[in-house]
Amino acid sequence: MSETTAAKIPVTVLTGYLGAGKTTLLNRILSENHGKKYAVIVNEFGEIGIDNDLIIGADEEVFEMNNGCVCCTVRGDLVRILDGLMKRKGKFDAIILETTGLADPAPVAQTFFVDEDVQLHTRLDAVVTVADAKWLSERLKDAPEAKNQIAFADVIVLNKIDLVTKPELAEVEARIRAINPYAKLHRTERAQVKLSDVLEQGAFDLDRILEIEPEFLDAGDAHDHDHDHHGHDHHHHDHGGMKHYHDEDMQSLSLRSDKPLDAATFMPWLQGLVAAEGAKMLRSKGILSFIGDDDRYVFQGVHMMLEGDHQRPWKDDEKRESRLVFIGRDLPEQMIRDGFANCIPA
Amino acid sequence: MSDFNPLQEQESIVSVTDRVKPVVIGAQVIAIHFLGDRAAFVGAEETVTLVSGSGEQTPVAVASGGILCAASDGNRVVMGGDDGKLIALDRKGEVTTLATDAKRRWIDNVALHPDGAVAWSVGKVAFVRPPKGEEKFFEVPSTVGGLAFAPKGLRLAIAHYNGVTLWFPNMAANADVLEWAGSHLGVTFSPDNKFLVTAMHEPALHGWRLADGKHMRMTGYPARVRSISWAAGGKALATSGADSVIVWPFGSKDGPMGKEPAMLAPLKAKVTMVACHPKQDILACGYSDGTILMVRMTDGAEILVRANKGEPVTALAWNAKGTLLAFAAQDGDGGLLEL
């Protein structure tokens, strides 16, 4: 599997609200001296100043799949563009897809789950959301798209931190963490983030689910391991002076168990859960330990689409623990907790 | 018992692999069209290679980038590129630029009419240029997925999300819309002008009987159908997308409605390309493992044209007389078979 993954062309989705600094970041990626060639897919062709050989205009056409599931949507234009780009294989190393501030990242991600040809030649590397430190708190209140983009992100570039005070920064971070506690968060001015922090993340690679998410271990606690200069105790966020927010409609829910799960109960439960509640679930991920199974089982999902696999044997010095995270809107928390508890034999 | 060796399964299939003239293009071929007695191997980028019956190759530079689509009327091959250009290559090997998109947008689809009209699409807009008269365009609600001219009259089918628009460029009347939920990525008229069939984004075909708009669902494919070909006289439609060639009967007035398709030439590989012989009940099919077979449609008898060499077959075509079969695989390894 790793061989085929390596041969596939990585696609980075760059999203964020208008004016947050997406184009600045995109131009940095393209102009920095990394020896790599990118194909860039942008909306509003020719409207923004991007200097690149391969630049393609996208229409952001969201198509429903013909399977009766309203949240199974794909980006029809992306299917066509990626198919066309494959004719020029060898002319570029990676693809960057810029979406408008109004776009929903889910159909983009689902295109990589659903379309066989897209799957064969490309892989979704990560969803990178650029957010404006000054305005994000406001946008989270009035723009559901902004919330979606934070909830969906693997990497959040919190830009323009030079325009806010320390308390303001703490507030916007707390708001972000209330929605998405496990994305990597980078604070920047003028989108000055290391490219290695936004590219080649492997966020949708089942093998790297843990590797890329140090926050995952403590999902649910709003803090950031990258920067501990706030001087508060990480494990007790309420003691550190950092406010803890609960977003009214977008939450993350993390579950864990030291006891192994019963696969025969868990699998139908998970599938039933995403079938029933998938429209509300933006992302889901998990690392699982099953009874009588020496392999780690990993899964991830976007809305109703799930993929999972045996990853590797548990290591001897590794704690056999199951961990799951769901990010979504109005998640039925107690029902999910009860259902999960039911998968753990007493 | 330990030294017992069961007999190797006899190679029972008739092979003509030794009669194939090798054609090495060296780069991906997306389509082959015959221009007179030469086969035009259309590359994925920049070049068309004209190959004569004796195997002589003449590369012709046609585009500055990727070639996204190609169609032929036997006199010329017309191609759309990611450089926003619509290019024609004629029998003499001469290249003409037919149209240039001002914004360099991709030309995604192209279709040719036997009378010389050409149609192409850029995004949501389909264009038609008759041999005489002025160019016209029509915008559909979403990006054009496929174009096809009706066999009679100047009528263009434009496939898109949730259906197909039938447009008469020379008439002021509104276009007809055939609706069916989902994304339609390819479109073809039956040669008798009675049926319209689309290849959908999901692994299925959809058809309409043009007289009354009656729907025909053709489902059950494990993969998206990328290659379709009408059998001689239009009595059947051969399709890729499964591990055998799926052939839908179109001989009766109901088309394939209520009928099972024939499943020919099953292999442990997916059919990627099909091309029906223009005159006889024979088809050629290429597979994801590089195998190419000729199959008699009446009884399923097979002849091996190319052994499984690994790379999938990406192009397959007969000349108009049905005396030459040309093919190419993804790595540009091709061949020419004279019958």
Describe the protein:
The complex is a heterodimer of chains A (346) and B (339). In chain A, helix 6 packs across helix 7. In chain A, 28% of the residues lie in helices and 26% in strands. Chain A has 346 residues and is α/β, with parallel strands linked by helices. In chain A, helix 8 links the parallel strand 8 and strand 9. With 339 residues, chain B is mainly beta. In chain B, strand 29 and strand 30 form a beta hairpin. Classes of the chains: A alpha/beta (346), B mainly beta (339). The interface between A and B is medium-sized, with 24 and 28 residues.
Mean pLDDT of chain B equals: 93
Q: Going across the major beta sheet of chain A, what is the strand order? A: 3-2-6-1-7-8-9
Q: Report strand order across the widest sheet of chain B.
A: 3-4-5-6-7-8-9
Kindly report the oligomeric state of this protein: heterodimer
Helix and strand sequence of chain A: HEHEEEEHEHHEHHEHEEHEEEEH
Any key phrases for this structure?
heterodimer, A: 346 residues, alpha/beta, seven-stranded parallel sheet, five-stranded antiparallel sheet, 14 strands, 28% helix, disordered N terminus, B: 339 residues, mainly beta, seven-stranded antiparallel sheet, six-stranded antiparallel sheet, 30 strands, globular
Brief overview:
Chain A is an alpha/beta fold and 346 residues long.
SSE arrangement:
The complex is a heterodimer of chains A (346) and B (339).
Chain A: H1 2-7, E1 9-16, H2 22-31, E2 38-43, E3 54-58, E4 62-64, E5 73-75, H3 76-85, E6 94-98, H4 105-114, H5 116-121, E7 122-132, H6 136-142, H7 144-152, E8 155-159, H8 166-179, E9 184-187, E10 250-257, H9 263-277, E11 281-288, E12 295-302, E13 305-313, E14 322-329, H10 333-341
Parallel strand pairs in A: 1-6, 1-7, 2-3, 2-6, 7-8, 8-9
Antiparallel strand pairs in A: 4-5, 10-14, 11-12, 11-14, 12-13
Helix pairs in contact in A: 6-7
Chain B: E1 14-15, E2 20-24, E3 29-35, E4 38-43, E5 45-51, E6 57-72, E7 76-81, E8 85-90, E9 95-100, E10 109-112, E11 118-122, E12 125-129, E13 136-139, E14 146-149, E15 156-167, E16 176-189, E17 195-200, E18 205-209, E19 214-218, E20 228-230, E21 236-239, E22 245-249, E23 262-264, E24 271-276, E25 282-287, E26 292-296, E27 302-306, E28 313-318, E29 324-329, E30 333-338
Parallel strand pairs in B: 1-27
Antiparallel strand pairs in B: 2-30, 3-4, 4-5, 5-6, 6-7, 7-8, 8-9, 10-11, 11-12, 12-13, 14-15, 15-16, 16-17, 17-18, 18-19, 20-21, 21-22, 22-23, 24-25, 25-26, 26-27, 28-29, 29-30
